[in-house]
UniProtKB/TrEMBL annotation, chain A:
Protein family (similarity comment): Belongs to the class-I pyridoxal-phosphate-dependent aminotransferase family.
GO molecular function: cysteine-S-conjugate beta-lyase activity; kynurenine-glyoxylate transaminase activity; kynurenine-oxoglutarate transaminase activity; pyridoxal phosphate binding
Protein's name according to its UniProt entry: Kynurenine--oxoglutarate transaminase 3
Annotated ranges, domain Aminotransferase class I/classII large: 64-441
Organism: Ursus maritimus
Pathway stated in the Swiss-Prot or TrEMBL entry: Amino-acid degradation; L-kynurenine degradation; kynurenate from L-kynurenine: step 1/2
Gene3D superfamilies: Aspartate Aminotransferase, domain 1 (3.90.1150.10), Type I PLP-dependent aspartate aminotransferase-like (Major domain) (3.40.640.10)
Pfam families in UniProt: Aminotran_1_2
InterPro entries: Aminotransferase_I/II_large, Kynurenine-oxoglutarate_AT, PyrdxlP-dep_Trfase, PyrdxlP-dep_Trfase_major, PyrdxlP-dep_Trfase_small
A GO CC annotation given for this chain: mitochondrion
Cofactor(s) this protein requires: pyridoxal 5'-phosphate
UniProtKB/TrEMBL annotation, chain B:
Protein name: Kynurenine--oxoglutarate transaminase 1
GO cellular component: cytosol; mitochondrion
Organism: Ursus maritimus (Polar bear)
Keywords per UniProt: Aminotransferase, Cytoplasm, Lyase, Pyridoxal phosphate, Transferase
Family classification: Belongs to the class-I pyridoxal-phosphate-dependent aminotransferase family.
PANTHER family assigned to the protein according to its UniProt record, in alphabetical order: FI04487P, KYNURENINE--OXOGLUTARATE TRANSAMINASE 1
Necessary cofactors: pyridoxal 5'-phosphate
A GO molecular function held by the record: kynurenine-oxoglutarate transaminase activity
Length: 455, 458
């Protein structure tokens, strides 16, 4: 039925064509150089080829390294989530294509869940789009709504994909940093990091198409307050700007804090895309399912991108997710509901990490939400002289040194900054704490040995 | 947005219905007139229309045998289902992110499996990218390589996404049509008689041509490009330094002893070809949405850049299941027990069944050598019932399909969807049927056709 590899015999006419190509051999050029004059990448990806994760996950792949870098849970997802997927794989029809904009039972479950937070009902077909992870929703939103020449405000530090996605759309990112209040002896909290309202207002102009908001925030763990969101909302309305609200960590909020949806603020539903993630909700990052929720006049453009990019997401995973949602939607006030039990579990881990980092002499920033914690590592004054690449920011060198010498990996926070402002955050390193106890135990061992070495 | 007062009124009434009790009317009014700026990016211009939505909706509203949708209505083979279940029940870490460019066991098996077929040393890290279906591979390729003003040659009839993907990347589609060579009277046409005119094809290449999209076996026609035809395309691509995007999702679905040839295996082509494949079509599991692109690193590296800035990772478990399924097939390659041998044998019988049955009502199928599909000539109907209901500019085949759904209980897809706008009127006498269906579906089709036959005028 299949051809084994066949070599064609040369024909006269073909020989003529080949002559043009092989003449390069006479000139001493490799054939590929001659042939690749025209075969170049599209301009939209110029300068976007490097990626911090590709570099650092390779480093941490060594099994002897305790990996607190990439935001990847090593805890097991809830049992009922795994069970649902297992049963579903056996259902024939669920192995074939489903509805492009989202599997019907999933969009219904999402509408039902999120209606609890919004004042309006949510139309599952017109106001929800299921995407390849929240990452895919970000891409669809930016490709669908951001044009060449637009400006997009990005709050620093930022989840690293925002900048390249904005650039790929031909738009200009405009950065504004979160700045910390002085803390003087108090424990440093993510809530100490705020935006200056005047500075923020100055970033808006007639070209501003959108602002990207991330709450709870990666990497700092900040949970924006009502007042802070109101400032952003007021500016969006005043400047007729869209808001892309990345809320993947929406359930991971710790005692004393509440996650608020900017889309529920007056005047905001019409101009906001709210993004969520199954991976972060149910600790199943490998399912790569996310969603965008918003008014149809915005969502329809994300749907257009969808139908011209991936068309549809995997069926069995969407059905399993729908069923998992129904279980937890029915018991939202129950402590057993995963939306309640996971943050409780993580708060304990957060507190453990804070304690560990403090014992090492660091000043961690205690996050109010999310599953990351950042700390200023320059206080350790580590000897990084054997890290050769002197052009890299301090935290890049530190993480590489720590991975190699302490077998503990993390992510440099300057990866979440743009070129010009990397120095502002280069002393900070990000640790992920959605890890099972044995992983945190191993990290604790490393840190204890480190402390002994220091003294 | 709002053309008249009535439209505004209806919109408000709709808002009022949707709002929950207690929401102020003032807020609803404010929401209606919130956005003055143009919302969508210009790259979406002209690509928002989705022809499938209408036909899927109609097919679900009426009692039809659905031969329109391009996916099997039978399950994937047992070994594939088991592979998925194994992926779900083994290492719980398969629920988490894997490597961005592909789950290693999958990229490794794809490299070894296709390396043999293409006669090429394939590196799993440099020459393989796993994508969200072949659809995702196509999108990634266009975004990586097609720039503003680049020309992309598309052979008609074409899988409908090639045109909007070219446009979204700022490219300009340049169409060249497969033309039918006339057959003997009374004989059914064959897809192999639909051919490219070499002079015409050559004339389509300009200094702006960046890529040519090849689809073999072809959707919707079912043509399997011959070696000579591929050599023609190959020589032009090399002469003009053009990239070949080769969509080979139906590579196992070839009939009557025809051979699928990958253009990347021809001399001089590996370095300029992206070969795209699909687990969905290979294992009758379209809902898994796992695809891949194979090619030289100098092209793949740009696809990787797009991939890491669009979706970044593909779901892990589907990839694990596909890797396992390929292991199964690699162990049986070329043998009678191979799914890649059994599937086309079974589907060929379905094809033959459909070809016989359709003729009973005066539809004239064009015999496909490959793929999931055939197109049937409806010229007889066009001359006997030229005035079917439809919109002003609606092509005949689209009206015919709607009529057939409403009146004859069969759903198909109008072939004009697979043509560029200016050429639709020349090909509005064909309709596409999918025959990768269970025997019971084909029998249900027969019942509908028998009833139709009795209703035909003598």
């Amino acid at each position: 039925m299949f051809l084994a590899q066949r070599r064609l015999c040369s024909l006269d006419s073909r020989a003529k064509f080949l002559k043009t190509i092989y003449s390069s051999k006479i000139l001493g050029l490799p054939a590929s150089a001659k042939m690749s004059l025209k075969i170049t990448n599209a301009k939209r990806i110029e300068g976007l080829d490097s990626n911090v994760w590709v570099e650092f996950t390779k480093l941490a792949a060594d099994p002897s390294v305790v990996n607190l870098g990439q935001g990847l849970p090593d805890i097991s997802p809830p049992v009922y989530v795994k069970e649902k997927l297992s049963k579903i794989a056996a259902i024939d029809s669920l192995n074939q294509y489903t509805r492009g904009f989202g599997h019907p039972s999933l969009v219904k479950a999402l509408a039902c869940l999120y209606e609890k937070f919004y004042q309006n009902q949510i139309n599952p077909n017109k106001e929800i789009l299921v995407t390849i992870g929240a990452y895919g929703s970000l891409f669809n939103a930016i490709q669908g709504l951001i044009d060449k020449g637009d400006e997009v405000i990005i709050i620093m530090p930022f989840y690293d994909c925002y900048e390249p996605m904005v650039r790929m759309a031909g738009a200009t990112p405009v950065f504004i940093p979160l700045r910390s209040k002085p803390v003087d002896g108090k424990r440093w909290s993510s809530s100490d990091w705020t935006l200056d309202p005047q500075e923020l207002a100055s970033k808006f102009n007639s070209k501003t198409k959108a602002i990207i908001l991330n709450t709870p925030h990666n990497p700092i763990g900040k949970v924006y307050t009502k007042e802070e969101l109101q400032v952003i909302a007021d500016l969006c309305i005043k400047n007729d700007t869209l808001c892309i609200s990345d809320e993947v960590y929406e359930w991971l909020v710790y005692t004393g804090n509440k996650h608020l949806k900017i889309a529920t603020f007056p005047g905001m539903w019409e101009r906001t895309i709210t993004i969520g993630s199954a991976g972060k909700t149910f600790s199943v990052t490998g399912w790569k399912l996310g969603w965008s929720i918003g008014p149809n006049h915005l969502i329809k453009h994300l749907q257009t991108v969808q139908q011209n990019s991936v068309y549809t997401c995997a069926t069995p995973l969407q059905e399993a997710l729908a069923q998992a949602f129904w279980i937890d939607i029915k018991r939202m006030d129950d402590p057993e509901c995963y939306f309640n039990s996971l943050p409780k579990e993580l708060e304990v881990k957060r507190d453990r990490m804070v304690h560990l980092l403090e014992s090492l002499g660091l000043k961690p920033i205690v996050p109010d939400g999310g599953y990351f914690i950042i700390a200023d590592v320059s206080l350790l004054d580590a000897d990084l002289s054997d890290m050769k690449d002197s052009n890299e920011p301090y935290d890049y060198k530190f993480v590489k040194w720590m991975t190699k010498n302490k077998k503990l990996s993390a992510i440099p926070v300057s990866a979440f900054c743009n070129e010009e402002t990397k120095l502002q955050f280069e002393k900070f390193v990000r640790f992920c704490f959605i890890k099972k106890d044995s992983t945190l135990d191993a990290a604790e061992e490393i840190i204890k040995a480190w402390i002994r070495q220091k003294s | 947005m709002f053309r008249n007062v009535a439209a505004i009124y209806l919109h408000l009434a709709g808002l009022l219905q949707r709002k929950k009790a207690g929401t102020s009317l003032t807020r609803c009014l404010h929401q209606t007139f919130a956005m003055a700026k143009r919302l969508q990016a210009r790259r979406l211009d002209g690509i928002d229309h989705n022809p499938w939505v209408e036909f899927s909706r109609m097919a679900s509203e009426y009692d039809v045998v659905n031969l329109g949708q391009g996916f099997p209505d039978f399950p994937p083979p047992d070994f594939a289902v088991q592979a998925f279940q194994l992926a779900l029940s083994s290492d719980y870490m398969l629920n988490q992110y894997t490597k961005a460019f592909g789950y290693p066991p999958l990229t490794e098996i794809l490299a070894s499996f296709f390396g043999k077929l293409l006669g090429q040393e394939i590196d799993p890290l440099k020459n393989v990218l796993v994508t969200v279906g072949a659809y995702g591979a196509l999108f990634t390729a266009f975004q990586a390589l097609v720039d503003e003003g680049d020309e992309v040659i598309i052979i008609e009839p074409f899988f409908d996404c090639y045109e909007p993907m070219t446009l979204m990347a700022g490219g300009r589609p340049v169409f060249v049509t497969l033309k039918l060579s006339p057959t003997q009277d009374g004989e059914l046409d064959s897809a192999s008689n639909w051919q490219l005119d070499p002079t015409e094809l050559a004339s389509k290449f300009t200094s702006r041509t960046k890529a040519l999209v090849l689809n073999t076996p072809n959707n919707p026609l079912g043509k399997v490009f011959s070696e000579a035809e591929l050599e023609l395309v190959a020589s032009l691509c090399q002469q003009h330094d053009v990239i070949c995007i080769s969509d080979e999702v139906y590579q196992w679905l070839v009939y009557d002893g025809h051979q699928h040839i990958s253009i990347a295996s021809l001399p001089g082509m590996w370095e300029r070809t992206l070969t795209i494949g699909s687990a969905g079509k290979s294992f009758s599991a379209t809902g898994w949405k796992v695809g891949w692109a194979l090619g030289p690193d100098r092209l793949l590296k740009h696809l990787r850049t797009v991939h890491q800035n669009t979706i970044y990772h593909c779901p892990t478990q589907g990839q694990a299941a596909v890797a396992q399924s390929f292991q199964h097939e690699q162990a049986r390659f070329g043998q009678a027990s191979s799914y890649f041998v059994q599937l086309p044998e079974a589907v060929q019988r379905s094809r033959d069944h459909m070809v016989r049955s359709l003729q009973s009502v005066g539809l004239r199928p064009v015999i496909p050598q490959g793929s999931y599909f055939l197109i049937a000539d409806i010229s007889d109907f066009k001359s006997k019932m030229p005035d079917l209901p439809g919109d002003a500019e609606e092509p005949y085949d689209s009206r015919f399909v709607k009529w057939m759904i409403r009146n004859k209980g069969l759903a198909a897809i109008p072939a004009s969807i697979f043509y560029s706008m200016p050429h639709r009127k020349h090909f509005d006498h064909y309709v596409r049927f999918c025959f990768v269906k269970d025997e019971s579906t084909l029998q249900a089709m027969d019942e509908k056709l028998q009833r139709w036959k009795t209703e035909l005028r003598p």
